[in-house]
Design brief:
homodimer; mainly alpha; Arc Repressor Mutant, subunit A; Tetracycline Repressor, domain 2; 2 domains; 10 helices
C-alpha cells in the first residue's frame, strides 16, 4: 500500500505517528529509539507504522519535510505583516524563537539532526536551510533598497551570521532546561544584528 | 592499571588513540564506531585501548578535555598579542576558524557532539563553552572600558551571538566539503559583530 502526499495530508494517523516519533527521538536520541517505541507512543500497532513509512530513517526524513512546510508558512505570514525591512527581520526572529519554544521536542530533534555530519535528512535540511537563507536574503536586499541596511555586506555571510546566532540562542535555552522565556531574547538579538557591538565613530558615521 | 593525568600526558599512545578515535568518529559517527576500528586506526591491539580508557564513551570525554586545553592555550596566546579589544576579538575569531580548518575531524566531532541533547561529554562541553564565553566576556568588558564597545549590551547574549555565528560559519564550511578557505571569513564576520548590518542614523550617532 503506497500513499501519495495528498492522501497522507488527509490522514491523521500519518501526522500522529510523526508527532509521536519526534517525542521519542527527543527523549532517547534517534539511534537508540525503536519503531516499537514510536508505535507505543502513537498508540498504534507496530505494523501500522509500515503502512506510512519505509523505516525509522524515513520517519525523520518525512518529519523534516512536513514540519518545514508548516513552520515556513508561519514565518512568511509574520514577515508579510511588517512595514519595513528591519521590522520584517524582527518578526522573523520572534516567530523563529516562538516556534521552537512552543515545540521543545521538535527543537531538540532539529538541533541534533541539523548538526550531524552524516545526516539522514540531508536533502530536507539543505532545502530548509536554503528557504531560511532566501527569506533572510530577501529581507536584507529590500533593506538595502530602503537604505536601512548597509550595502557593503557579503549577503552569503549575513545569512549564516543570523541563522547561527539564533540557533545558538535556541541551543543554550534547550540545555538550560528551558528555564526562561526564549522569545524575550528576540528583540535584543535583532538589535545586535542591526547595530553590532561596536561604538559608532561619529567622524565616520 | 590506572594512569594519572600527568602520566597520560607523557604517554604518546594515549594521544595516538585519541587522534585515531576522532578520525573514526568523524568518518562513521560515534554510535556506529567500534573500539576495534579505533584500535585498528591507531595501530594498537584492542586490549591496549582499555589500558587508557574505560570504554568508547570515555574516549570522547577524554578527547574533549585534552583538545579543549590545547586549543584554548592557542586562543589565549593570540588574544594576548593584540593591542585593543577589537583586535583581540579579531584574533580570537581568526584563530578559532584556523583551528577548525586545520583539523577537520575534530571540527566534525565537535559540531555533532556539542549539539546533541543527551551529550556524553556533557561536563567537558559545558566547561569548554564556559571558557569560550569567559574569553569573549573579558574582551567585551575591556572594550567597554576602552570606549570601543557599546555599554548598553546584555553580555550574556553577546557571547552566544558570537559563538553561534562562528559555529554556523564552521558548520556551513564542513557541509560544503571544505571547498573554500574558512579563515577568509574571519574579518567580514568580525565586521558584522562590530558594526552590525544596519545603516547608521547620523542624527542618532
Amino acid at each position: 500500500m503506497k500513499l501519495t502526499i495528498n492522501q497522507k495530508d488527509k490522514n491523521s494517523k500519518y501526522h500522529l505517528i510523526l508527532e509521536a516519533a519526534v517525542k521519542v527521538f527527543a527523549r532517547h536520541g534517534f539511534y537508540q529509539s525503536t519503531v516499537a517505541e514510536i508505535a507505543k507512543e502513537a498508540g498504534v500497532a507496530d505494523g501500522t507504522i509500515y503502512l506510512y513509512f519505509k523505516n525509522k530513517d524515513d520517519i525523520i526524513v518525512q518529519f523534516f519535510s512536513y514540519r518545514t512546510r508548516q513552520v515556513f508558512d508561519r514565518f512568511r505570514a509574520e514577515v508579510a505583516k511588517a512595514g519595513n525591512s528591519l521590522d520584517r527581520l524582527r518578526n522573523l526572529i520572534r516567530r523563529h524563537l516562538a516556534e521552537f519554544q512552543r515545540d521543545r521536542d521538535m527543537a531538540i530533534v532539529y538541533q541534533v539532526e541539523t548538526h550531524q555530519y552524516s545526516r539522514l535528512a540531508e536533502e530536507q535540511i539543505r532545502e530548509m536551510s536554503q528557504m531560511y537563507q532566501d527569506l533572510v536574503a530577501e529581507i536584507v536586499e529590500t533593506g538595502q533598497q530602503e537604505g536601512r541596511i548597509r550595502k557593503d555586506l557579503y549577503v552569503g555571510l549575513v545569512k549564516r551570521f543570523i541563522l547561527g546566532a539564533v540557533d545558538e540562542v535556541i541551543n543554550t535555552w534547550l540545555h538550560s532546561d528551558g528555564k526562561y522565556d526564549l522569545v524575550t531574547m528576540a528583540d535584543p538579538l535583532v538589535d545586535l544584528f542591526i547595530r553590532g557591538i561596536g561604538v559608532v565613530d561619529k567622524k565616520e558615521a
